[in-house]
Amino acid sequence: MKEKEKLAGEMTLEAAIVVPIVMALVLIVICFVLYVRDGLVLKACVYGTANVEACDSYDVFKEKVLLAVKKEQLYVLEPGIKFRKGLDSYKVDIQGTLKVKIWGMNQLIDACFQPKSITVEKNMSSEILWVAREIIKQVERK
Fold it and tell me: 21, 36, 80, 118: most buried, per Cβ within 10 A?
């Protein structure tokens, strides 16, 4: 018996359906990884700078924290930072919004991102400040 010839269009279904789905999943994973990375960098930057500069006046404190955030390379988050002044502390509220507009992902990430509030005491232990300064110097050297 003669065997039937195979059709040459076998890859069409995979190329038309499977490849775009895989590419979309890869894009979503990359976006989530960058989102998590930016969130951690933003929180660490604000927390580290706030703890080191807490002994300055309120205006100088705000300026130094905002300058430190501007220096950081954030890929998908646009930082939103609000300051509040307490009697013996400063409060820093961190919010992040996505720079990238991807259908459906903005709502998902906005729902996941909870604004963080950092409270920094004006009169901190000098040992804590010394350790924080040394850590920042080590990070800046790298």
Answer: 118
Tens of pLDDT, residues 8-42: 556 677 778 888 899 988 988 888 888 888 888 88
The DSSP element (H or E) to which 117 belongs, if any, is strand 116-121
Separation in Å, CA 50 to CA 14, 43, 45, 60: 52, 10, 8, 11
Do 94 and 72 touch, CB atoms closer than 8 A?
A: no
Eight-class DSSP state of 75: S
How much helix, strand and coil, in percent to the nearest 5, is found in the chain?
55, 20, 25
The predicted pLDDT at position 6 comes to: 65
